[in-house]
Automatic annotation (TrEMBL):
Pfam families: PTR2
Compartment list: Membrane
Domain of life: Eukaryota
PROSITE patterns tied to this protein: PTR2_1 (PS01022), PTR2_2 (PS01023)
Positions of transmembrane segments: 6-22, 54-73, 85-104, 119-140, 161-185
Protein family according to the UniProt entry: Belongs to the major facilitator superfamily. Proton-dependent oligopeptide transporter (POT/PTR) (TC 2.A.17) family.
Keyword Magnesium: no
GO cellular component, one term: membrane
GO annotation, biological process: oligopeptide transport
GO molecular function terms noted in the UniProt entry: symporter activity
Entry protein name: Solute carrier family 15 member 1
Keywords, comma-separated and alphabetical: Membrane, Peptide transport, Protein transport, Symport, Transmembrane, Transmembrane helix, Transport
Gene for this chain: SLC15A1
Membrane topology: Multi-pass membrane protein
Length: 205
């Protein structure tokens, strides 16, 4: 009986809370890590000028902060918080995979000169990936914190309050670490590594 109780609760918290916190850290690391080098990717890989790179970047960020409205409507009206998180996390991961594929030189570099031969393919994949990522990251945004709060009983007010502190710490930690680590990885002559790392972490979702 004690083993079962420990499996359901650890350090006074529901065991699901630890998965939620780790998930949020990985999601924020994935999102901000990709965003940290996004303009450079537009300029030096897709060969967009400064103006177009800036416009697309800010359009993507704006979309990420508009889609939470859609995620909240879907969660409240149809799927519920858990199914919305799972469904849109899959969309998020697919977007990261598509983005990673779009950043592979060899995909269209048939003469092996280090430059893509059909840039439009990479642009199309990158744009589709960004749209999927925006819907994924934005759609789960209003659901995760609320879903975490639902894991506690009515008499666990102290634990619930502590959870939200840890939850927002994980958000900021993931954002801070990724913003530092991703440019370093890019500077180590590994342009695809940040994207691949983002994909791997998004799959933890």
């Amino acid at each position: 009986m004690q083993i079962v109780s420990f499996c359901l609760h650890c350090f006074g918290f529901p065991i699901s809370i630890f998965f939620i916190v780790i998930n949020e850290f990985c999601e924020r690391f994935s999102y901000y890590g990709m965003r940290a080098v996004l303009v450079l990717y537009f300029k030096f890989f897709l060969h967009w000028d400064d103006n177009l790179s800036t416009v697309i970047y800010h359009t993507f960020v704006a979309l990420c902060y508009l889609t939470p409205i859609l995620g909240a409507i879907v969660a409240d009206s149809w799927l519920g918080k858990f199914k919305t998180i799972v469904s849109l996390s899959i969309v998020y991961t697919i977007g990261q995979v598509v983005m990673a594929i779009g950043s592979i030189n060899d995909l269209t570099d048939h003469n092996r000169d280090g430059t893509p031969d059909v840039l439009s393919v990479h642009i199309a994949l990158s744009v589709v990936g960004l749209i999927l990522i925006a819907f994924g990251t934005g759609g789960i945004k209003p659901c995760v914190a609320a879903f975490g709060g639902d894991q506690f009983e009515d008499d666990q007010e102290k634990q619930r309050s502590m959870f939200f502190s840890i939850f927002y710490l994980s958000i900021n930690a993931g954002s801070l670490i990724s913003t530092i680590v991703t440019p370093i990885l890019r500077g180590k002559s590994a342009p695809l590594l940040p994207t691949k790392l983002s994909v791997c972490l998004s799959m933890v979702l």
